[in-house]
């Protein structure tokens, strides 16, 4: 694919597959080759692969104006960084923040290691570091959604608190030790079906139920993408990501000293908070960021 010269950071005139030239706030489209590590995915996507300290390839993407405050979005279980599509396609978000996301290991377009060593806390912190270094991010804000919030405990176990500017817990689990304390009985009941390697019927029904619990009325193409991200994850990776442990001391120390804490309830929101209450969610996050950047 031909690319015209960069106009400004992250804004490019790209040649589409129809041979027209269009301006996009995205990175060059790159090819993803099917390999054992990424579980046979062959695709093209905007973004870049960054290499984590243990060699795991992590798929990352940044959009917007890199001079704005940076927010790194960390997705939850099953559904990769595409979970945030509505945010990353929104000109209002893009006008006020530099948006960065990545498929955490075991998800989406990133490698999906299935050894216990690959799921030690430090490895997940190093994935974040690789994204930070690749995009030269300085003190980003970090938004953790759902079980993605636990990655912030990993990050702060290996870095001082001022490595990041602030934390946004979006319907999040702060650490693995709290997982089953904050999850709903309906979500807990999904565990066996998400982990089964012998009953396809059960896995299929359970993963569909998981998506429905995240939001019961998603736009069809997005719903299919959520289902697809579930299918590309090896069950062995699912088991490791649910059973992994971490040292919560550092994040609990940071939480104890919270400054400028703001707890905002999004009335009637589903687990996909930004899809349920897009305007309120956006205003809440961007206002808090602007006060703390
Ligand atoms: C990027 O953001 C900076 C800081 O707000 C601003 O000065 C600059 O004009 C922005 N660039 C574009 C292309 O919008
Ligand atoms: C989770 O709940 C159990 C009791 O149900 C409690 O013993 C434990 O301390 C809680 N863990 C956390 C991290 O809150
Ligand atoms: C597989 O799962 C389905 C749905 O949960 C269940 O009805 C069925 O009995 C299971 N089959 C076996 C062989 O366990
Ligand atoms: C957990 O981390 C704290 C520092 O944040 C450290 O003092 C403690 O020894 C660690 N615990 C374990 C079990 O490694
Ligand atoms: C929290 O954020 C909301 C939405 O931006 C704002 O209305 C509220 O005043 C804030 N509360 C505190 C305590 O800062």
UniProtKB/TrEMBL annotation:
Known InterPro entries for this protein?
Answer: AB_hydrolase_1, AB_hydrolase_fold, AB_hydrolase_sf
What range(s) does the AB hydrolase-1 domain occupy?
69-197
GO cellular component annotations of the record: membrane
Pfam families reported in the protein's UniProt record: Abhydrolase_1 (PF00561)
What PANTHER family does the annotation carry? HYDROLASE, PUTATIVE (AFU_ORTHOLOGUE AFUA_2G14860)-RELATED, MONOACYLGLYCEROL LIPASE
Protein name as it appears in the record: Putative oxidoreductase ephD
Species of origin: Mycena venus
